[in-house]
Amino acid sequence: MKDAKKHIFFGFVIAFIVGAPAYLDSDCLFAGIWTALTSSAFAGVVKEWCDNKTQFNEWSWKDLGWTCVGGVIAVVLILLLHFAKG
Fold it and tell me: Do 71 and 36 meet the contact criterion of CB atoms below 8 Å apart?
């Protein structure tokens, strides 16, 4: 479970760092949601691809899923920002 928490955390951080400015700069909720989800998914794919290329490691769909869960949490936070803003 320790590894899952790392994936969730970094998926969240990457998604929020990319998604929040995209939303705030364009004032378009869809832009924030889309960039947050795609950035966390992209980061997860890159991480798993690198894992697959290293010795004694392999691709993990579960780890990719946990990274995307972090992106979903970032989307929830962006939605809260949107509705708190009014």
Answer: yes
